[in-house]
């Protein structure tokens, strides 16, 4: 949280910059109110970069369009029925929305829009007080004399920013009743801003957790993705778990809170998974600074052990989870499909869950070159993500064990790099393609071509590059033995 003087300076600079200054002048000349609202105001106080410019106005959508069109390079409707007009002005994208007073029907979760008359009424219907502050840029329509720009704060948002608390402008029961997705948004903002959540908000989330089931899978997916893309999503995951909301949208994760057996011992799988998630995020940032945040890696870190409850067995004084990687891969695919994730994400996350144990054993006995090749082949384009997941999966408090595993994976990555340089390992293929196989053997396309291709691929993985002559001899020998 920046000090008030610095925040005031940032807000003044924001008001003076294009396109804010030009918009304020144009709306004032047309007799309409215009206010900068929500995120930009909040982020100025938090000393965060302002990327999106959102405005609210007393003007109707048609009136907004009439004012904006002469200033804009382009305009488009992003939700005219909800009162929102978007424009690109001087290279910046802005959204301007008519003052609103949404009313939800309590069933469909879709708002019945009623355009409002006052900025204050618009702000009080917003999700959280820290997002319900505005900077009024134009004179009031009622002629009230005020120094501009003026901070308008209807719910104590500035006070809550100073205290680091997330609260709602109106009773949280009413706010979440209007739109239950705000409960997931509370978890996201708590994680993103590093804020605590007001006790009354937590209580309302617990009481209304069941209502999240009325939200479409797509909206839930998008909010969950936004949470996982924050720098530290773990506090948000905890909040959703503790309030029972995650039981409704991603029940496989709360199910990791396995009861401890009085005789057998095992690691706390829920806490372990949260640690893996955060370690993966930190490792991703250190290995690829400045890269786009990777949702696939974060989903894989969170879900990598979800097969453990279904495979839990007690063997003497030890709890085992045999095949939890395979079971977990199927569970991850099923849940992500239900949440309407795209097919590429579903396949990638499921495959990473399936492969996350493949490394273990390398540190004890080492691998042959052929085993390293298979590891790379099986990971395919997911290899770097598998590196991050496997390294993040080490959460032991035994320092010597952690150092041994880290050293072993360093060695594996070194060998992969060496083999890749020698053999272009990332594109491992047999030395003969399907056309050459058919020509050598004098056969037509069919099952035998596939069998021959797989045989040559295994030979390539086992022995490295064979060369066409040696590969052809091996193919003829295999075909003769097969025919016999």
UniProtKB/TrEMBL annotation:
The keyword Metal-binding applies. The keyword Cytoplasm does not apply. The lineage of its organism: Bacteria, Bacillati, Actinomycetota, Actinomycetes, Micrococcales. It comes from Agrococcus terreus. InterPro entries: HD/PDEase_dom (IPR003607), HD_domain (IPR006674), HDIG_dom (IPR006675), NT_sf (IPR043519), PolA_pol_head_dom (IPR002646), PolyA_RNA-bd (IPR032828), tRNA_adenylyltransferase (IPR014065), tRNA_CCA-adding_enzyme (IPR050124). PANTHER family: MULTIFUNCTIONAL CCA PROTEIN. SMART domains: HDc (SM00471). SUPFAM superfamilies: Nucleotidyltransferase, Poly A polymerase C-terminal region-like. This is CCA tRNA nucleotidyltransferase. CDD domains: HDc, NT_ClassII-CCAase. Keywords: ATP-binding, Magnesium, Metal-binding, Nucleotide-binding, Nucleotidyltransferase, RNA repair, RNA-binding, Transferase, tRNA processing.
